[in-house]
Amino acid sequence: MARHIYSCPLRWSDMDAFGHVNNAVFISYLEEARIDFMFRLAPGDGSPSFSGGSVVARHEIDYKRPLVHRHEPVTVESWVTKISAASLTIAYEIKDEDQVYVRASTVVVPYDLEAARPRRITAEERSYLMEYMVEDADGTEGTGRADEKDALAA
């Protein structure tokens, strides 16, 4: 299984009154990594994959330890845990080499901006996402929760 690696800089404004990255800022870090994964690295030269838009249907975040400001970026690793007809689940770890600060997941729904409605995942998108798909220890696809079924299904 491949993981997408994103190097995310920390900004002084990310800190809260306690001197560590504010919990809400971690969502921005996840967004930066997700956009880098889905759009900048989309398959094909000039491919329209993922370019039509997407919406976040769900975030789930487990804060493991505080992250304090420093000049070195933090690493955000992303991979796919579930692909359905009209949604996908991306898992993340925000980490350094020796420790994890956050584990999270996001359910993303591809969206047709012109039609103002969700759309199905294309074959090209599915092929790209499968490169980052993880399997559970029992051999079944994904680690997505049962209540994440086809969010906003088309």
From TrEMBL:
Write down what this protein is called. Thioesterase family protein
Q: Which InterPro entries match?
A: 4-hydroxybenzoyl-CoA_TE, HotDog_dom_sf
Instruction: Please report a single Pfam family linked to this protein.
Output: 4HBT_2
PANTHER family recorded: 4-HYDROXYBENZOYL-COA THIOESTERASE FAMILY MEMBER, LONG-CHAIN ACYL-COA THIOESTERASE FADM
Q: Which domain of life is it from?
A: Bacteria
